[in-house]
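Margin note from the TA: students keep mixing up input and output lines. Inputs are the sequences; the output is the structure of the whole complex. Example:
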Amino acid sequence: MIPYSKQNISEEDINAIIDVLKSDYLTQGPKTPEFEKIVSTYCGVKYGCAVNSATSGLHIACLALGVGKGDIVWTSPISFVASSNCALYCGATVDFVDIDSLSYNMSVTSLEEKLILAKKKGILPKVVIPVHLSGKSCDMEKIHDLSKEYGFKIIEDASHAIGASYKNQKVGSCIYSDITVFSFHPVKIITTCEGGMCMTNDENLYNLLLRYRSHGITRHAEEMKKKPDGLWYYEQLNLGFNYRLNDLQSVLGISQMKKLDSFVKERNIIASDYNDLFSGSQIDLPKINSENYSSWHLYIIRISNNNGLNRNSVFEKLRNNGIYVNVHYIPIYRQPYYQKMNFKLEDYPESEKFYEEAISIPVFPGLEDQQKQKIISIISEPFGHQNLF
Ligand SMILES: *Cc1c(COP(=O)(O)O)cnc(C)c1O
């Protein structure tokens, strides 16, 4: 079976974990701040707050930005449900901005149109969460400009995008956002088994993230309401959670960070091989412009249901041949839980079209040439009387 993505764990990774198992710290110890420092230095951002998943990271990012009941949060419908669930956890209302037909990221044009309308109605969002689908950054400069004009905050859901760049800056630099969130789930670019990190340049937001990560508790005297009555003293100031990353996970993250650039490079090579192998076919290939360096978490092809071609039959054929392709993603508004909120499919024509046509084919470090060839040959086999090429 060839999965669409998977982790890459070396002997070095394993030995690093064994060393921590023999140390004094199993839960959050010295390895977590070390991991945070490595990731923040890599991204060129001031602070990193490691958490036990990107889902937790998105949740506390919303809380740190003050999202609560009565607030509105917008995101892309072509994403994992965590991108919008985070707002619902805070009691806010969610709405979606349709995607761009070429990048499959949130459309800046649709965003602007929706903002103009929302301003007239007095229902502007407090936070917008652009998602860097497949590891290719959204047009953050334009989204940032709109945030200044319409007064919303920005959380980048960069779950797919550690190691990617936009306008020669690493994703995670937070130049165009308040907080950026990474995921270290095994299918993503680097892994800590489960895990994530919130990046920010804002000291105040950073302190709030730390607090929400651990029960809403502070041990900093300057943040306390009362005078400490001893060295044991701490105060709970908010209703926080236990979202900490442990030292075993953090040391795996440290070890994986050493390989991040080579992982991303290999993913870029695979993507470029696919581009060559598919060239001249009727398959829509992922497009990338010069301002982006993608981390290629996903390689999404689109097969439109005409000329005798059919996405579903290609998908089934790949699965039947042991190629575990997938569809990223079912538009979030289509989920039964979200359908209760009365979203209308016709409000998202580009997302609907995307959902009919997309397949994520395998891309991960270690994918062999032979496997790539197999995937290509299965896709290019004749369909009835019609050949794809
Ligand atoms: C994977 C993913 C998440 C959630 O990540 P976890 O670390 O599994 O919580 C959120 N958003 C997007 C876009 C993702 O792909």
